[in-house]
Automatic annotation (TrEMBL):
GO terms for biological process: UMP salvage; uracil salvage. Allosterically activated by GTP. GO terms for molecular function: GTP binding; magnesium ion binding; uracil phosphoribosyltransferase activity. Belongs to the UPRTase family. It comes from Leucobacter exalbidus. This is Uracil phosphoribosyltransferase.
Length: 212
């Protein structure tokens, strides 16, 4: 598994504002989308393209276009939805599938409550979006789901990650092709398995409380 941690002052600046507990919800949403576009640039570095010929006003030349089947973007509901527009801005022709997952805050185990994905993901490059890689249970579950459907190349993009989360994903990936792109690598988890220093509950900060 390959891991990339962003190293750019604009990403760190936007992340700082996201972490600030006084940042209001509309700003949090906007910044999540902007951050995603910056991370998507790194995450799509190996998106599959094929050569094809075009004519400029001057001459014929070769260019590239996305290879079929087109990439599949999979935001993990709820919080991953806040990253979707930022990704789609960069890859507007990609298709989008959805996975709804919620972590049980007592057991820390994820449950999948919704799924809307193509039956077969054979030959598909998949891009999974979830801002928070904490214990890694949710993302590991999502990646397993995609491999079980036939995907052979999964890139996960997270705003924040932890060393514990990376290890969970490394185990889940085994020798399959998984790439992890993080906006920042945080210190670890607190006794409630929240990321430290983190930014709190990403879903709640994007969309309000979960309504339990
Ligand atoms: O790495 P883990 O320990 O599994 O935790 C991370 C997960 O927790 C959050 O989702 P949550 O379950 O809070 O759902 P939400 O997006 O609806 O808020 C987050 O968006 C991840 O999916
Ligand atoms: O810090 C954390 C951990 C899990 N889920 C979140 O939204 N934030
Ligand atoms: Mg949440």
């Amino acid at each position: 598994m390959r891991v990339f941690v962003a190293d750019h002052p604009l990403i760190t600046h936007k992340l700082t504002v996201l972490r600030d507990k006084n940042t209001p919800q509309p700003t949090f949403r906007l910044l999540t989308e902007e951050l995603m576009t910056l991370l998507a640039y790194e995450a799509t570095r190996e998106v599959r393209v094929e050569p094809y010929e075009i004519e400029t006003p001057v001459t014929k030349t070769m260019g590239v276009r996305l290879t079929q089947p087109l990439p599949l973007i999979v935001p993990i509901l709820r919080a991953g939805l806040g990253m979707l527009e930022g990704m789609v801005k960069l890859v507007p022709t990609a298709e989008v599938g959805f996975l709804g997952m919620a972590r049980d805050e007592e057991t820390l185990l994820p449950t999948t409550y919704a799924e809307r994905l193509p039956d077969s993901l054979a030959g598909r490059q998949c891009f999974v979006l979830d801002p928070m890689l904490a214990t890694g249970g949710s993302l590991a579950g999502a990646i397993k789901f995609l491999f079980d459907r036939g995907a052979d190349d999964v890139t996960a993009i997270c705003v924040l990650g932890t060393p514990e989360g990376i290890e969970t994903i490394r185990e889940a990936a085994g020798d399959r092709k998984v790439t992890l792109v993080l906006g920042a690598l945080d210190e670890g988890l607190n006794d409630k398995a929240y990321i430290v220093p983190g930014l709190g509950d990403a879903g709640d900060r994007l969309y309000g409380t979960a309504g339990e």
